[in-house]
Design a protein that fits this description.
Helices cover 9% and strands 57% of the residues. It is mostly beta strands. The protein has a single domain, classed as Porin, CATH 2.40.160.10. A 16-stranded antiparallel β-barrel has the order 1-3-4-5-6-9-10-11-12-13-14-15-16-17-18-19. The chain has a two-stranded antiparallel sheet with strand order 7-8. Strand 12 and strand 13 form a beta hairpin. The longest helix is centred in the N-terminal third of the chain and has 25 residues. The chain is globular and about 50 Å long. The two termini are 30 Å apart.
């Protein structure tokens, strides 16, 4: 549980950042405040009713400076928080859990240094109907990467982070006929590490669809391979992802399929998937959702999922509202 001093420190940090950001934006023209606020009421897989973010709420400060010659300096600080309590997303995560990077952009692409999503997590979300961002219905959220943490010791107490890499170097190439190359890794090694983290992802993006292949390892020697495909036709899209992760002698195989369709202000989503760990079906699920846009930035939504495990099954469902700024 977060202490009173920690809560006060977090509150002071947010207050100071919010007070300084508008002044910086006026004075330099290079600081942007953005975010994603989500809150809902839902029944979780433990069959308990909860209030809080069904997706993830975040607050970000980003910006940069033109250095001339087509090169610019960039930075981004982003944190994720619980809308039901105002605290950080989880007590073991740092203040700038979501991202803390500085970098350079230009004709060569972009290079960033710090903490950020690795090359796989930063790009695989387009192959999930919920953008890999929904705790109720997203098959990717539930099933991908069972045996792979991007950084096994990234958070407080040496706990793992599924998605973000500390002490990292990140490269995103410019677009070349729809193809982009994404690399992430860390030159640092800690006691007990088997190797240095390294991730490579190649992504193709087109108006009619997308494809991606990725392969990587973390500092513990765990590996992951991912293939994603997406077909887009006017208002609808279908997609799928196959994820293979290995940790020691354990192998997890996850397969997901999904679809979404836009009808006016409504978006309908569906997804199915399963994950087998060492030949045993660990989970299979069906997710359904509907979202209604109230404006360009505000939406309401409802989600449902049926999840089946080896010894039990559970239904989870909820409604929520989201606003981006």
């Amino acid at each position: 549980m977060r202490t009173t001093n920690q809560r006060r420190s977090l509150a002071r940090t947010f207050a100071l950042a919010c007070a300084l950001a508008p002044a910086a934006a006026w004075g330099q023209g290079g600081v942007k405040v953005s975010g994603f606020i989500d809150a809902g009421i839902y029944r979780d897989i433990d069959q308990a009713w909860k209030v809080g973010p069904i997706q993830r709420s975040n607050l970000a400060f980003s910006g940069g400076e033109d250095l001339g010659g087509g090169v610019a300096f960039t930075f981004r600080l982003s944190t994720r928080f619980e809308t039901d309590t105002g605290t950080l997303e989880e007590s073991n995560k740092p203040l700038w859990h979501d991202e803390a990077t500085v970098g350079l952009t230009g004709a060569f692409g972009s290079i960033q240094v710090g903490r950020r999503m690795d090359a796989l997590y930063a790009n695989d979300w387009i192959f999930d109907p919920w953008n890999y961002y929904d705790r109720i219905a997203s098959p990717g959220w539930d099933l991908w990467r069972r045996n792979f943490a991007s950084d096994p010791t990234a958070n407080r107490g040496g706990t793992p982070d599924w998605g973000r890499l500390n002490n990292g170097i990140f490269y995103d190439s410019p677009d070349l006929a729809g193809f982009t190359l994404h690399l992430s890794g860390s030159p640092e090694s800690a006691p007990g590490d088997r190797n240095k983290a390294l991730m490579t992802a190649l992504r193709y993006q087109h108006a009619n669809g997308a494809a991606m292949i990725a392969r990587g390892r973390n500092s513990a020697g765990d590996t992951v391979s991912f293939v994603g495909l997406k077909l887009i036709r006017s208002a609808w899209s279908v997609m799928g992802g196959y994820d293979l992760s290995k940790s020691g002698a354990s192998t997890a195989r996850a397969l997901t399929l999904g679809a979404s369709v836009n009808v006016g202000p409504m978006t309908y989503r569906a997804g199915v998937g399963r994950v087998d760990v060492d030949g045993v079906r660990e989970e299979k699920m069906l997710g359904l959702g509907v979202k209604r846009a109230l404006s360009k930035r505000t939406s309401v939504y409802a989600d449902f999922a049926r999840k089946v495990y080896p010894a039990r099954a559970a239904s989870t469902y909820g409604v929520g509202m989201v606003h981006t700024f």
